Amino acid sequence: MPIINKYYFFTKFRVLQDIMFVDVKKISIAILEDEEIIRNALITLLCVQPDIEIAATFETGEHALEALTKQPVDVLLFDINLPGISGIETISRLKAVQPQIQCMAITSYDDADNIFNALKAGATGYMLKNIQPDKLSEAIQEIHAGGSPMSSQIARKVVIEFANIKEDVLYSAALSRRENEILQLLAKGFRYKEISAQLFISVETVRTHIRNIYEKLQVKTRDEAIRKVKS
Predict the structure, then answer these.
(1) Does domain 177-230 correspond to CATH entry 1.10.10.10?
(2) In CATH, what is the architecture of 3-163?
(3) Is the pLDDT of residue 4 over 50?
(4) N or C: which end of the chain has fewer CB within 10 A?
């Protein structure tokens, strides 16, 4: 069915609902997207859905946090790359105070780091921006019903990543939990700034932890630390 006809059908359906006094429980959603064109496209696609109500839209994570902390919605659609705090940091903070909100990424990022950082922060869905309009509304319904919708290529990456997880985790009893986390990232080749973003701590805090790791293991370099823990 052509998009124009589809929108016409849904518009007429909503009018009939009002006339017949059909009480439909709508899913309240908020959209966190800084690009106006994409934000408006999402509004256009979703405003005609009879079971979805767009309660709010935001351009920054700061504004979303301020509003949704006080007045939560059922589902938050969020982009990852935003001005100010990222979408991942936004949902991490939001889920701490409003854990019932279901958060679904709508993004162009399909790399493993962003996928797993979003999931660890509290996202229960991850869709790419090339999603078909009908699939988007289905994903919102699914996540609201307790599912975890993902674009097919995202789901495959999740499966592959789990398949590659090895049981021999790099660990030293001489180090704290945080220091072991940082040692794992060092072993994967992460730089200080990347570790900072991954663990949501400052670069200076990363440096302090690494100095402590070297001191406790009595080594001077990253490679020496990794070799000592592996041995």
Answers:
(1) yes
(2) 3-Layer(aba) Sandwich (3.40)
(3) no
(4) C
